[in-house]
Amino acid sequence: MESSKQAIEAKPKKRMNPEMKEANEIVRKQLVQKVKNRDESAFINQQKDWTSKEHFSIPEDILKGINDELGFKRPSNIQAAAIPLILKKDEKGNYEHLIIQSNFGSGKTGAYTIGSLLRIDSSIKKIQVIVLGYQREIINQISEMFINATLFSEITVKNCVDDVFRKPSEHILITTLGKLNSYVTGRNKVDLSALKIVVIDFARLFFDQIKSEAELNGILDAIKKLGHQVQFIVLSDTYNEQVQYKLANLIEEANQISQENSQLQLTNIINYEYKCEPRGKIDFIKQVFDTISMTQTIIFINTLDFAETVFNILKHDGYKVAILFSKMSKEERDEIMIKFRERRVNVLITTNIQVEGIYIPNIGMVINFDVPKLRVQGKFKPDYENFLQRIVHAGRFGKTGIALTLYDNENDELIFQKIITHYEMDKMVQKLDSPRKLKDLLEELIIA
């Protein structure tokens, strides 16, 4: 991984009209030109620890939270690169914006958590950092990290995912766009006079799910009226053209940490592919679970209807499975996640977005029941982004895991090969002989 000031290259998920495409290209070139004017920022030697004054100056109370509660003994590569950039000022004394592209599980959340904490003045009892997430599970995770990091300090944290009634005044506010909009534009407005940082995490999903541009514009207008500079930190695994366009209108110039496609490879995940008999995927899945019954597994299926079909069949046949989908109540979702984390169920069936970005420990295997694909103008094309977002759950923080992709026809096989070629993983994906191979490999990983 390395720092780069060049454009993030990503193909759009959605087709843009010609006017937007032209505007996007103009604004993107402006952003890239400004970004190129910034100094290069190479990754810091990962052997440096948190107490190295050369790169980090962390108060003892925050350092204790990092070491004892978060368990971060040394900064990850992304943390080592990002934290100094979060603290970097331009020639006018303003803190520079930062755009980060890095894989899920690389330590991005820890990077902006620690970096933003170093900018907070705990003696000022006002909101100084706002973190925006795209769904409640993500916000809960982010809140937990901030709370743990600040456990021994006087810095306060507010998780607003379920609470819009009390006006918050904590130093750090973690919320969704809609709830923040109610705080900013509603009757009971919050005091943003001390605001220093706005973090947008999982930017690709955040911008995809914005229901009202007016909500975002209302918040941006409120920030502009503050009369002082507010630093934006934006993070995502990939940035398609839609997101680039929105960012270029949000941030005029920024430092950027990005990756090439080949750098997005998850080398700690052992990838397999298996060609099933036509309509034979469910029977094959049963063979797998009969062989490795206790392995925590996530199964990704492209459509909710078929996800429910697979869930009902496996449940009827006695397998310990659960299903997660967007229309569930928050109580139902929480209950399912608790059961899976506590191993009361071994298999979680879901669609693409439902567990994206959510940290679930002890996952041994991810199964792509369907090859990730998109329908574009009536034809199916590879869904490159979701392939990474699926398999990454098997390899959080460098842990070794298994990803298995199934297909039962030539079209899906071709789409899968395009995905592998896109990420230059042709030599990293093996053809699976039988479920027994998975059992032997998982046993080796457990022993290791």
How many independent structural domains?
2
CATH superfamily of the largest domain: P-loop containing nucleotide triphosphate hydrolases
What structural class do helix, strand and pairing data support? alpha/beta
Q: What fold name stands as the CATH topology of the largest domain?
A: Rossmann fold
Note the beta-strand portion: 15-25%
Rg, alpha carbons: 22 Å
Number of helices: 15
Name given to the CATH architecture of the largest domain = 3-Layer(aba) Sandwich
Largest sheet: 7 strands, parallel
Averaging pLDDT over every residue, what do you get? 81
* Top CATH class of the largest domain: Alpha Beta
Q: Shape, please?
A: globular
Report the end-to-end length measured between terminal Cα atoms.
26 Å
Number of E-type strands: 16
Q: What is the spatial order of strands in the main beta sheet? A: 3-4-2-5-6-1-7
Low-confidence stretches: 1-21, 26-47
- The share of residues in helices is 25-40%
Biased composition (Basic and acidic residues): 8-22
EC number: 3.6.4.13
Organism: Stylonychia lemnae (Ciliate)
Domain DEAD-box RNA helicase Q: 51-80
Summarize the structure.
The protein has 448 residues and is an alpha/beta fold. Helix content is 38%, strand content 16%. It is globular and about 65 Å long.
Description:
The chain has 2 domains: 18-259, P-loop containing nucleotide triphosphate hydrolases (Rossmann fold); 265-447, Rossmann fold, CATH 3.40.50.300. The chain contains 15 helices and 16 strands. It has helices spanning 18-36, 60-70, 77-86, 108-117, 136-149, 177-185, 203-208, 213-224, 241-250, 281-291, 304-316, 330-341, 384-391, 410-422, 435-447; strands spanning 97-101, 129-132, 157-159, 172-175, 197-200, 231-236, 254-257, 269-275, 297-300, 321-324, 347-350, 365-368, 373-376, 379-382, 401-407, 429-431. The strands form 3 sheets. It has a 7-stranded parallel beta sheet, with helices on both faces. A 7-stranded parallel beta sheet has the order 10-11-9-12-15-8-16, with helices on both faces. The chain has a two-stranded antiparallel ribbon with strand order 13-14. Helix 10 packs parallel to helix 15 (435-447). It is globular and about 65 Å long. Keywords: ATP-binding, Coiled coil, Helicase, Hydrolase, Nucleotide-binding.
